[in-house]
C-alpha cells in the first residue's frame, strides 16, 4: 500500500492522460458506426467503397505532410531511423488492414449482431498474445484480469440487451459469419501490433511505468517512460539491420512523430490502391446501377465516415506510443457504450438501467489495466509478475529493496544493488559495485558505523 501512496500527482496525471485518450478513441470509433448505420438504412453501404473513402482522407492529409518532412530533413540522418526503409512492410500492413475492415462488415450479412459484437472481443486476447511474442511485452496477471473484466462488461451489456437493441434476427449462415468475425478480429490484432511495431521502433517493449522514489510519480528509467519524449528509443532487433543504420553517437534520434506520419502516409497509399482494385472487382457491379439514387445525405455520411476514420487512425498510433495496442483495443470496448448515446439521440433506441452497470464494469477493467502499467502492485508480486518483476529489472528501487538493504547493513552483510535478487529469491550473483549507489537509508547506516 505504501508503494501506491508514494505515487503522487504525476501518476494521477499519467493515468488520466491514458484513460482520456483511450476514451476519445472509443468515442471517435462510435461515430464511424453512426455513419455506417445511416448508410445501411439508406441501402447505400458498400464496405469497400467506405474503405476507399477512409484511406483517401488519410492519404490526402498525411502524404503531403510526409513529403514535406522528407524535404525538410533531406540532409539529416538519424541514428535509429531511415526514411522508407523496407517500404514493402507498409504494403503488407495495408492488405491486412483493408481486409480486416472488409471482413467485419461482410460478417453482418451472415450472422446476427450479438455474435459480431461478442466475437470482436477476440481482438483483445489476440493483441496481447501477439504483443507478447512479436513485441516481447511483459504482461502482469493484473493486465490480463483487467482485460477480462472489460470484456465481461461488454458481454454483460450485449447478453442482457442492456443497450435496448433487439437481437432476435438470425443470420442466413451463422457459422460462416462467426468464422468471419474471428478472422476479422485476428486481422485487426495483427494490424494493430504491426502498427505499434512500425511507429514505436524501440527496444523490446516495456509497458510498465514505475513510480520513482522522488514521490512525483514519474518514472526514472527512460525505457519505462510511458509518455513519448521528443525522441523515440533505439530500433528493435526484429529487423536486425535496422539497428545498424547509422552510428548512434554521430546522429540524433528521430522525432517521435516522423515514423507515425510515414506509417500513415505509406499505409494509406497502398491501401487506397488495393481497395480501389477490390472495389471494381467486387462491388462495382452492385454500385453502378444504384449510384444515381444516392442522395446528398448519403454522400454527406460517406464523407463523415472518412473524416472520423482519419481521426481514428491518427489517434491509434498516439495511444500505441504512450501505452500499447493492447490498451487501445481494451479502450475500444467502450465504443459500444458510446454508440448507445447515438441510439438515444439519433435512432430513438433507449437502453435499460443495466447499461450503467456495464459501463462501470468496463471502466474498472480499463482502470486496473492502466494502474498495472504505472504503479507496482505490491500484493503477491511474485504471482502477479510471472515474467519477472519489471520495476526491479529496470533498476527502479522499491520499498522492499530498501527494507532488505537496511537489514543487510545492520547485520554487516555485503550490500547488493537496488533491484538485484535477494538471497530469499534465489539470486546468487552480486551486482557491479560501480553501477549504482545504494539507497539513502543504507548509506546513513554505513556512516553511523564508521563514526562508532
TrEMBL record:
Keywords (A to Z) from UniProt: Membrane, Transmembrane, Transmembrane helix, Transport
Tell me if Nucleotide-binding is a UniProt keyword of this record.
Answer: no
Question: From which residue to which does the signal peptide run?
Answer: none
Q: How does it sit in the membrane?
A: Multi-pass membrane protein
Please give the GO cellular component terms listed in this UniProt entry: membrane
Q: Annotated region Disordered: where?
A: 394-452
Q: Which InterPro entries match?
A: EmrE-like, SLC35_F1/F2/F6, SLC35F_Transporter
Ranges of Polar residues composition bias in the record: 435-446
A GO MF annotation of the entry reads:
transmembrane transporter activity
- The transmembrane segments are 52-70, 90-108, 114-135, 140-160, 264-287, 299-320, 326-347, 354-372
Query: Looking at the keywords, is Transmembrane helix present?
Result: yes
Q: Which family does it belong to?
A: Belongs to the SLC35F solute transporter family.
* Protein's UniProt name: Uncharacterized protein
The root-end lineage is: Eukaryota, Discoba, Euglenozoa, Kinetoplastea, Metakinetoplastina
Amino acid at each position: 500500500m505504501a508503494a501506491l501512496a508514494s505515487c503522487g500527482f504525476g501518476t494521477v496525471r499519467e493515468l488520466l492522460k491514458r484513460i482520456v485518450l483511450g476514451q476519445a478513441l472509443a468515442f471517435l470509433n462510435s461515430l464511424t458506426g453512426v455513419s455506417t448505420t445511416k448508410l445501411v438504412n439508406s441501402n447505400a453501404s458498400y464496405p469497400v467503397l467506405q474503405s476507399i473513402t477512409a484511406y483517401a482522407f488519410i492519404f490526402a492529409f498525411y502524404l503531403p505532410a510526409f513529403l514535406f518532412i522528407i524535404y525538410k530533413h533531406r540532409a539529416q540522418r538519424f541514428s535509429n531511423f531511415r526514411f522508407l526503409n523496407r517500404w514493402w512492410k507498409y504494403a503488407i500492413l495495408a492488405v491486412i488492414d483493408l481486409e480486416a475492415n472488409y471482413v467485419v462488415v461482410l460478417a453482418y450479412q451472415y450472422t446476427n449482431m450479438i455474435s459480431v459484437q461478442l466475437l470482436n472481443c477476440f481482438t483483445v486476447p489476440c493483441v496481447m498474445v501477439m504483443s507478447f511474442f512479436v513485441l516481447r511485452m511483459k504482461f502482469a496477471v493484473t493486465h490480463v484480469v483487467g482485460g477480462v473484466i472489460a470484456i465481461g462488461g461488454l458481454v454483460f451489456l450485449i447478453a442482457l440487451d442492456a443497450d435496448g437493441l433487439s437481437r432476435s434476427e438470425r443470420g442466413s449462415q451463422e457459422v460462416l459469419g462467426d468464422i468471419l468475425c474471428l478472422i476479422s478480429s485476428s486481422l485487426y490484432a495483427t494490424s494493430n501490433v504491426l502498427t505499434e511495431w512500425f511507429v514505436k521502433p524501440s527496444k523490446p517493449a516495456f509497458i510498465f511505468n514505475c513510480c520513482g522514489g522522488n514521490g512525483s510519480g514519474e518514472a526514472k528509467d527512460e525505457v519505462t517512460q510511458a509518455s513519448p519524449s521528443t525522441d523515440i528509443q533505439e530500433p528493435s532487433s526484429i529487423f536486425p539491420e535496422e539497428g545498424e543504420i547509422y552510428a548512434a553517437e554521430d546522429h540524433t534520434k528521430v522525432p517521435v512523430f516522423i515514423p507515425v506520419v510515414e506509417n500513415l502516409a505509406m499505409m494509406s497509399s497502398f491501401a487506397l490502391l488495393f481497395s480501389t482494385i477490390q472495389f471494381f472487382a467486387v462491388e462495382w457491379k452492385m454500385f453502378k446501377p444504384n449510384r444515381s439514387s444516392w442522395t446528398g445525405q448519403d454522400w454527406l455520411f460517406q464523407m463523415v465516415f472518412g473524416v472520423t476514420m482519419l481521426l481514428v487512425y491518427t489517434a491509434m498510433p498516439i495511444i500505441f506510443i504512450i501505452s500499447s495496442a493492447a490498451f487501445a483495443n481494451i479502450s475500444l470496448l467502450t465504443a459500444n457504450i458510446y454508440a448507445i448515446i447515438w441510439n438515444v439521440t439519433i435512432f430513438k433506441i433507449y437502453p435499460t438501467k443495466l447499461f450503467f452497470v456495464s459501463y462501470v464494469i468496463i471502466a474498472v477493467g480499463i482502470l486496473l489495466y492502466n494502474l498495472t502499467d504505472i504503479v507496482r502492485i505490491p500484493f503477491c508480486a511474485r504471482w502477479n509478475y510471472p515474467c519477472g518483476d519489471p520495476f526491479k529489472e529496470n533498476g527502479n528501487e522499491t520499498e522492499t529493496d530498501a527494507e532488505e538493504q537496511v537489514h543487510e547493513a545492520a547485520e554487516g552483510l555485503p550490500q547488493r544493488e537496488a533491484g538485484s535478487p535477494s538471497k530469499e529469491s534465489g539470486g546468487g550473483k552480486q551486482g557491479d559495485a560501480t553501477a549504482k549507489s545504494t539507497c539513502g537509508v543504507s548509506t546513513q547506516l554505513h556512516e553511523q558505523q564508521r563514526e562508532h
